[in-house]
Amino acid sequence: MYHNILIPVSFDAERDVTAPMKLAEMLRTPEAQVTLLHVVEHIPGYAISYMPEDYMAEARQAIQQELEDMAAKLPNAKAVVIEGHSGRSILEWAEINSPDLIIIASHRPGMQDLLLGSTAAQVVRHAQCAVHVVR
Questions:
Q1: DSSP 8-state code for residue 15
Q2: What is the largest CA-CA distance in the chain?
Q3: pLDDT tens across 15-31, in order?
């Protein structure tokens, strides 16, 4: 049983967010802390100049609300939104907050993932705690 569980959440269409949450419910202790974490990737300067001024603030607020709604379904869960590169930011957050389990969703790997690596693969390779990959 785990006491501090991290669930990185991606809102990609092919990712199933409910499966990691169900697994966390099964593997958690009654008093466990569960964190739903979303990493907002940086938008290049040349692209952000074509977006409305408040785009990033509104997008971040919508993501935060969606995560909070999801967290409300699990006891003692919280929502956290950070900015950065997905793989590195998840690992940095985990290093600071010391989860004893990361539950991360992954799609079926294709040739692109074999050549470039995926976020889930990076987390599996470098995390200092147990990692459970859900497909």
A1: -
A2: 48
A3: 678 999 999 999 999 99
